[in-house]
Amino acid sequence: MVIWAGPFDCGAQQLGFQQWRSEAHACPTESNNNQQGTLRPNAYQNSCPDAEPIVFSGVAKAVADDPRMAASLLRLHFHDCFGCDGSVLLDDSPTFVGEKSAAPNLNSLRGFEVIDAIKSDLESLCPETVSCADILAIAARDSVVLSGGPGWDVQTGRRDSLSASKTVANNNIPGPNSDVATLVSKFQNVGLDLNDMVTLSGAHTIGKARCSTFSSRLNGVSNPVLPGQDMGFLQSLQQLCLQSDQGGNSTQNLAELDLVTPATFDNQYYINLISGEGLLTSDQALVTTNSDARDIVESYAADTMLFFDNFVSSMVRLGGLSPLLGNSGEIRRSCRRAN
């Protein structure tokens, strides 16, 4: 497994995409595999050779304007990829209620406009060629790299769904208050294991969460819900959530998922869990209720490169969950609606 050490070694933030990818000592080479109906690296090498540079440019601009957008774009891919077919991007239509209004997504997912802008640029250059599902997968990788994390060759060649399902999204996507058994079950249902679950949870090393997603943890400020909780940390969260935002709704206040290095993709998330400073119930549960999960957390807290290596492997597996290939689905002209 080839690992890119991120922008500090590969220079993604300082260099253009092509120069970044041409750093042979640090970055992987591209595949010339042109067979149809399979996921493969660099699927657009002939049909739209500038596809990945265009995605990278759009993500880099969005993250420069709003550093939180890196986590948001990564999360979009996660929430799409209990299917990996671009269905999360579809607006409601007369024939279906889309996934945007599902409980795990409503008033939570963001970055749709960034994907729209990237898709518009790609449609101008290569009409009906690059799928929205692939844009999400590439943007997720670029978001990690631009935040200082590892890079990888994204497997591409997905096609886009014609519909979406609010019910499926509600049933499949784990919630922020999930216990480890629920998390493991939902990941196993799509073919991922405990190691994948703990590894992909490490994406919470960047980004923010609304008070409403972790308010259940604050019930333990006087009487801890989970053993090992840092009471000072919980009290600081309680103070944050008591403060009214401009709209007078304290549930909309945001807390850093990683209070130490909130904009850097690193292993600090796991260190925080061991210290009792995981933000979400589903985060802190990884070290308090399951010894196997805790062993993985401790190994990542001690070894950044082990986390990076496994994160790349798990992201590739995540991106391969039930993609539409060959003649299935379509290549949308707009990511918000079927053609």
From TrEMBL:
Residues holding heme b? H204
> Catalyzes what?
2 a phenolic donor + H2O2 = 2 a phenolic radical donor + 2 H2O
A Pfam family recorded for this sequence: peroxidase
Where does this protein hold Ca(2+) 2? T205, D258, T261, D266
Q: Where does the signal peptide begin and end?
A: none
All residue ranges annotated as the Plant heme peroxidase family profile domain in the record: 38-339
Keywords on record? Calcium, Disulfide bond, Glycoprotein, Heme, Hydrogen peroxide, Iron, Metal-binding, Oxidoreductase, Peroxidase, Secreted
Enumerate the subcellular locations listed in this protein's record, separating them with semicolons: Secreted
Active site feature = H79
Residues where Ca(2+) 1 binds: D80, G83, D85, S87, E99
Disulfide bond sites:
C48-C126, C81-C84, C132-C335, C211-C241
Any one GO CC term of this protein is: extracellular region
PROSITE patterns (UniProt xref): PEROXIDASE_1, PEROXIDASE_2, PEROXIDASE_4
Q: Identify the residue position(s) of the site Transition state stabilizer.
A: R75
Residues at which substrate binds? P174
Please give one Gene Ontology molecular function term for this protein.
heme binding
Q: How is the cofactor bound?
A: Binds 2 calcium ions per subunit.
This chain's function reads: Removal of H(2)O(2), oxidation of toxic reductants, biosynthesis and degradation of lignin, suberization, auxin catabolism, response to environmental stresses such as wounding, pathogen attack and oxidative stress.
Q: Which family does it belong to?
A: Belongs to the peroxidase family. Ascorbate peroxidase subfamily. Belongs to the peroxidase family. Classical plant (class III) peroxidase subfamily.
What PANTHER family does UniProt report for this protein, alphabetically? PEROXIDASE 40, PEROXIDASE 72-RELATED
**Protein name per UniProt:** Peroxidase
At the highest ranks, the source species' classification is: Eukaryota, Viridiplantae, Streptophyta, Embryophyta, Tracheophyta
